[in-house]
Design goal:
about 160 residues; alpha+beta; four-stranded antiparallel β-sheet; two-stranded antiparallel ribbon; about 35% helix; about 20% strand
């Protein structure tokens, strides 16, 4: 049964750490309301000059901390966490929640930032994350299973 975006099974949320995936990036990049864009070295160079601080790469401790904060936030909000994987430069989460994906993603980012800022072993950054991120609706069992497998096994 196909569900509408108003009634998804879950979301695949993705966001990157500050400065690690800029507009023009050689891996390609996504422009809001325009979709995937090709690499553009000049655009990337211009974006890099606008950074307010060095890029943020998460170490092992910080990655585990981010995953734990997301687990606890899901428990507190009574959301169903299906998969989470924090890498050095991005985070993937598959979650079932009643709020829209951008709200869930921003809550995760805020909770993780609060925790990282007070952890004595975490690096010190004013900015941990890029603005926004991706929130894909998973409307059927096949897309849900594929997202969970991707987050869990393909990173």
């Amino acid at each position: 049964m196909q569900r509408s975006c108003d009634d998804p099974l879950a979301y695949l949320l993705t966001w990157t750490t500050y400065g690690t995936w800029l507009p023009g990036d050689e891996r390609g990049w996504t422009k809001r309301n325009r979709g995937p864009q090709p690499p553009d070295r000049e655009k990337e160079r211009a974006a890099r000059t606008l950074l307010k601080e060095p890029t943020c790469r998460l170490g092992h401790l910080e990655r585990r901390l981010v995953e734990e904060v997301i687990r606890r936030h899901c428990e507190w909000r009574r959301w169903s966490l299906l998969a989470v994987n924090c890498r050095s430069n991005h985070v993937h989460v598959v979650v079932s929640a009643t709020e829209p994906p951008h709200v869930v993603r921003e809550q995760f980012k805020a909770a993780c930032t609060r925790r990282l800022k007070v952890d004595p072993n975490a690096a010190k950054h004013a900015r941990w994350w890029t603005q926004g991120g991706s929130g894909r609706y998973l409307n059927d069992e096949d897309s849900l299973e594929a997202a969970v497998l991707y987050v869990r096994d393909a990173q």
